[in-house]
Write a structure and sequence with these properties.
Elements (H helix, E strand, L loop, with lengths): L2 H4 L15 E10 L6 E11 L4 E5 L6 H9 L6 E6 L2 E2 L7 E4 L11 H11 L4 H14 L15 H13 L5 E5 L7 H18 L2 E6 L2 H7 L2 E5 L6 E6 L14 H25 L2
Bound molecules: adenosine-5'-diphosphate and magnesium ion.
């Protein structure tokens, strides 16, 4: 464990171990009603174990964000329920941290203030919140940039601040909605490796949404593939690549097979959806 974390008063990242079980039971989500009704997620059930790294992979518009938002508590399911550690999700809460594709930092606050914001809202003193902010800025390698404003940082750095900000509430589940989608390919690869490193230290459950097959296979313990809209899970693929992972693993047979399998499932699903639309 990092020294900075060992000395910290609030629950340590190790404290999140054993927490973060996510249960999605018969969840379907429909927006609007009557003639305007639009089903975004078809009945879906799924169990995620504490500390697991799960990627939800699917085409644009299939309902990935909607399903993730239901776990976050931003969207209420129309049927079924989502629970985290046995408690039904009814609204957003500090046990679930969210990182979006857009960096969503407060532009008028410094990096340090952005990360300290959550702990401050939770009632911690500036000293306590500041110590948490420094811990997590250290974890994402940005301690020296605490006094900068978000606009003064690159996209990758802003996204690392976003991750630090989400972790500063010590969530048991980290929800990530295409967090690296706006980054260039090289930065993205670096961010993926650095996220895995942070996850290894923090031990939190991660649900990571992406439409990128390589990203899903590289990161996940399990890849959940969603159908075309309205989405439901059509494949639950365990990824057995060893950890820690590095980008050179893309040449390993397990990687190549898993990637090909995902592509085959996605291709078959696109064909099915296309044929259905043409009836
Ligand atoms: P994805 O993240 O997979 O691209 P989304 O979950 O964002 O897909 O969207 C799934 C479907 O639900 C889309 O057709 C989208 O237009 C619709 N949708 C998402 N949010 C809302 C909302 N708040 N109101 C109405 N429709 C929505
Ligand atoms: Mg989305």
């Amino acid at each position: 464990m990092l020294d900075v974390l060992k000395n910290h008063k609030t629950p340590t990242p190790d404290g999140s171990k054993g927490k973060g079980a996510v249960s999605i039971e018969n969840v379907s989500i429909t927006f609007g009603s009557g003639a305007e009704a639009h089903q975004a997620v078809q009945t879906t059930s799924l169990e995620i174990k504490p500390g697991e790294f799960v990627c939800i992979l699917g085409p644009s518009g299939c309902g990935k964000s909607t399903l993730l938002n239901a776990v976050a508590g931003y969207v209420r399911p129309s049927t079924g329920k989502v629970s985290v550690d046995g408690t039904e999700v009814e609204k957003p809460g500090p046990d679930r941290g969210m990182v979006f594709q857009q960096y969503s930092l407060l532009p008028w606050k410094t990096v340090y203030e952005n990360v300290a914001f959550g702990p401050r809202m939770a009632g911690q003193s500036w000293t306590e919140a500041g110590s948490v902010a420094n811990t997590f800025l250290g974890m994402v390698g940005l301690k020296k940039f605490g006094n900068r404003y978000p606009a003064e940082l690159s996209g990758g750095m802003q996204q690392r601040v976003g991750i630090a900000r989400a972790l500063a509430n010590y969530p048991s589940v980290l929800l990530m909605d295409e967090p690296f989608g706006a980054l260039d390919a090289q930065t993205r690869l670096m961010m993926q490796e650095s996220l895995l490193e942070i996850w290894r230290k923090f031990g939190t459950t991660v649900i990571f949404v992406t439409h990128d097959v390589d990203e899903a296979v590289f990161l996940a313990d399990r890849v959940l593939i969603m159908s075309a809209a309205p989405g439901h899970i059509i494949e639950d693929l365990p990824i057995t690549l060893p950890r820690p992972r590095s980008s050179d693993m893309a040449a390993l047979p397990e990687y190549v097979q898993a990637r090909q399998h995902c592509l085959d499932v996605i291709r078959a699903e696109s064909r099915r959806a296309f044929a259905e639309q043409n009836i």
